[in-house]
């Protein structure tokens, strides 16, 4: 790790006022924190690494922000796998936040140089970056190594950290280089790794790649969701597209009757083919643009439009590869 230390204050266990932290969270975020969220925050305020093994939708993201309530100048930097996820988190953030990606840099007044300068100067409390940016030497020199940034950085976060194990290697090799990100942070800055998917072999990989401390605090909250079930449909037509025709209900009379559905495919060719077939089968009243395809060859502007229309419910069926929301 870097030998330079951040200047934020770290506390002993008895020095943290949990009631104040709870009240401040309610004041800033409008919700009362769970005990496990307070425990995660206390661990970070003590300078300890944290493993957040918490189900989707339970409130992991708020744990990235709560440690910043200790001081109006503290910052955190979050490594996120998907552009769409970063943009959503920035959009809903209660604290000043910025996502660093191709899309936001192009739109930023003054471009990349001005964005990086604003980050260093503390205009944003939360900075969301991709693994590729986290390991990029230009970003390190422009942001991570700057004295003012290092003075006020409170914590680093690896969100969806299971991707270290699942995506590292030939797909997105920068995941296996995230130790560089850890090493470029000040030596006393704790790291939080968060995921809803931490089986033992994945967690072992994350511990190694991210150089987590042996005494890292492990917080686990069940992701059991009684309203979610797993089902399997038998393929009746071999390799033809007919087996996905069911996603447009026979009795649908209006767009809202068609459930919003994402269909994942392994190839761009299959993706385009399935979208074409579904548009062919769609009833006359169903707009063709309510069925869309999304893959690596779709341009950034069109991807952004599809994501926006999907959120609005205008796209009901999205046939896609795992490029959905991927960093660009």
Structure overview:
The protein has 328 residues and is of the alpha/beta class. The chain folds into 2 domains: 13-221, P-loop containing nucleotide triphosphate hydrolases (Rossmann fold, 3-Layer(aba) Sandwich); 241-320, 3-Layer(aba) Sandwich (Rossmann fold), CATH 3.40.50.300. Helices cover 37% and strands 14% of the residues. It contains 14 helices and 10 strands. It has helices at 18-29, 35-45, 60-65, 83-92, 102-107, 111-120, 131-134, 137-144, 147-152, 163-166, 178-184, 200-209, 268-281, 300-312, and strands at 50-54, 75-79, 97-99, 126-129, 153-158, 191-195, 217-221, 261-264, 291-294, 317-320. The strands form 2 sheets. A 7-stranded parallel β-sheet has the order 3-4-2-5-6-1-7. A 3-stranded parallel β-sheet has the order 8-10-9, with helices on both faces. Strand 9, helix 14 and strand 10 form a beta-alpha-beta unit. Helix 6 (111-120) packs across helix 8 (137-144). The chain is globular and about 65 Å long. It catalyses: Couples ATP hydrolysis with the unwinding of duplex DNA by translocating in the 3'-5' direction.
Descriptive tags:
single chain; 328 residues; alpha/beta; Rossmann fold; 2 domains; 10 strands; EC 5.6.2.4; DNA 3'-5' helicase; Helicase_ATP-bd
Task: Summarize, please.
This protein is an alpha/beta fold and 328 residues long.
Strand order of the largest sheet: 3-4-2-5-6-1-7
| Broad structural category | alpha/beta
Query: Strand-residue fraction?
Result: 5-15%
* Known CATH architecture of the largest domain: 3-Layer(aba) Sandwich
Order of helices and strands: HHEHEHEHHEHHHEHHEHEEHEHE
Low-confidence stretches: none
What shape does the CA trace take?
globular
- What's the level 1 CATH class of the largest domain? Alpha Beta
Estimate the helix proportion, in percent. 25-40%
The value of Rg in angstroms is: 22 Å
Give the full name of the CATH homologous superfamily of the largest domain: P-loop containing nucleotide triphosphate hydrolases
Assembly state here?
single chain
Largest sheet: 7 strands, parallel
The CATH topology of the largest domain turns out to be: Rossmann fold
Q: Total domains, how many?
A: 2
């Amino acid at each position: 790790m870097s030998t330079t230390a951040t200047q934020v204050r770290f506390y002993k266990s008895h020095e943290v006022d949990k009631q104040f932290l709870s009240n401040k969270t309610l004041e800033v975020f409008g919700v009362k924190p769970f005990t496990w969220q307070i425990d995660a925050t206390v661990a970070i305020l003590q300078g300890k690494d944290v493993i957040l093994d918490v189900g989707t939708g339970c409130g992991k993201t708020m744990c990235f922000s709560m440690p910043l309530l200790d001081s109006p100048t503290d910052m955190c930097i979050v490594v996120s796998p998907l552009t769409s996820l970063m943009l959503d988190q920035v959009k809903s953030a209660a604290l000043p936040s910025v996502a660093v990606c191709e899309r936001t840099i192009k739109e930023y007044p003054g471009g990349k140089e001005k964005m990086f300068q604003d980050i260093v100067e503390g205009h944003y409390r939360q900075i969301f970056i991709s693994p590729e940016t986290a390991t990029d030497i230009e970003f390190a020199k422009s942001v991570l190594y700057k004295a003012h940034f290092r003075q006020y950085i409170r914590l680093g976060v690896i969100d969806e950290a299971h991707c270290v194990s699942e995506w590292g290697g030939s797909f997105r090799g920068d995941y296996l280089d995230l130790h560089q990100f850890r090493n470029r942070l000040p030596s006393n800055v704790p790291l939080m790794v968060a995921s809803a998917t931490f089986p033992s072999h994945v967690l072992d990989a994350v511990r190694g790649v991210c150089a987590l401390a042996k005494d890292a605090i492990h917080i686990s909250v069940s992701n059991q969701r009684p309203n979610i079930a797993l089902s399997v449909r038998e393929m009746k037509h071999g390799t033809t597209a007919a087996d996905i025709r069911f996603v447009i209900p026979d009795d649908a009379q209006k767009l809202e009757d068609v459930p919003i559905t994402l269909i994942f495919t392994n190839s761009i060719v299959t993706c385009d083919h399935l979208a074409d077939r579904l548009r062919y089968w769609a009833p006359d009243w169903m707009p063709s643009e309510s069925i869309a395809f999304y893959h690596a060859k779709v341009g950034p502007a069109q991807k952004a439009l599809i994501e926006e229309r999907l959120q609005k419910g205008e796209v009901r069926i999205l046939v896609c590869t795992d490029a959905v929301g991927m960093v660009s």
